[in-house]
Amino acid sequence: MEALTLAELAAQARERLDPSVWDFIEGGAGEERTLAGNRAAFDRTWLRPAVLTASVPRLATTILGREWAAPVGVAPLAYHTLVHPDGELATVRAAGAAGLPVVVSTFAGREFDELAEASAAPLWLQVYCFRDRDVTRALVERAARAGFEALVVTVDAPRLGRRLRDERNGFRLPPGVRPANLPDGDYDSPSGHARTEFDPGLGWEVVDWLRGLAGLPILVKGVLGATDAERALAAGVDGIVVSNHGGRQLDGAPPTLDVLPEVAAAVSGKVPVLLDGGVRRGADVVAARALGADAVLVGRPVLHGLAAGAESGVARVLEILRDELVDVMALAGIEDLGGIGPDVVVTGGRAP
Ligand code: FNR
């Protein structure tokens, strides 16, 4: 039966996936407090309608000079090939058809060239910085050659957070699931690989270094407060992603929606602000816009769609979000995204 909500698609995905793969996708770090907090923050955020303001919602927005059909993109997720052999190819096809961008992971399971050929919408590269800078350099140059339009450097992962579900399951990548754009190496254990290969000593100078590699706009992913937002601006970034890595890094980091207003105030419109973590409904997109995000990125639901129905499953995820967004905006009396101000949001009530 066709899923009507992202929760239903998640249930379909769970039925199809090996339990250890499901745990790898769903899990967070530590006791998963931050993972739960991301959702709880949306669940205690309510939307106040403006009544008797007939509206036909317009969803399109422009980010870094490119039009997005809606303020929604796909967050970087390692190894789409873990849940379906088409992997990222299916994802970029579905997103491209919907006019929405994809942030492709350093650990994508399909090659950048074939993704660029298959996509009709912007592709950005998510960058992990390795101890061996030549590996990162080659990765960035490969994406730039393929026509990727921006770099999103993940700054919350000097190593991977402890994912207890994966430790208990002894999770290893199955044979055949490997990063398609990195040199050969030992990728069996994602956390083990990160521990030996990620650069734990990264500083803000990485922004200039990355810009020098390909001249692409640089966004930082993993900012959770005004101070780091100001440092990012001082380092010359072109955009900020408010993210706690879907609760997979520092357990105890705040829910992204809760810190969004202070980041947005510090950035004050100088560069785009994106948010990820727990976005599961059209109403969540409106709440994030109201509290200062230009757009959101969606993570796990994309893998659910891919597992449940390959390219058409991902298309369904994006369609559900889009339809819900239209519905919420129409019912809340919001004509276009610019009309979503802080007064739309009511907080503090009890979550259902
Ligand atoms: C991720 N995330 C992630 N982030 C990143 O910068 N590079 C990566 O390779 C990955 N890989 C990855 C794999 C899986 C299975 C998950 C669930 C997450 C984090 C991701 O980009 C994003 O921050 C969160 O997933 C957003 O939260 P939601 O939408 O999943 O709640």
TrEMBL record:
<comment type="similarity">
    <text>Belongs to the FMN-dependent alpha-hydroxy acid dehydrogenase family.</text>
</comment>
<protein>
    <recommendedName>
        <fullName>FMN hydroxy acid dehydrogenase domain-containing protein</fullName>
    </recommendedName>
</protein>
<feature type="domain" description="FMN hydroxy acid dehydrogenase">
    <location>
        <begin position="1"/>
        <end position="350"/>
    </location>
</feature>
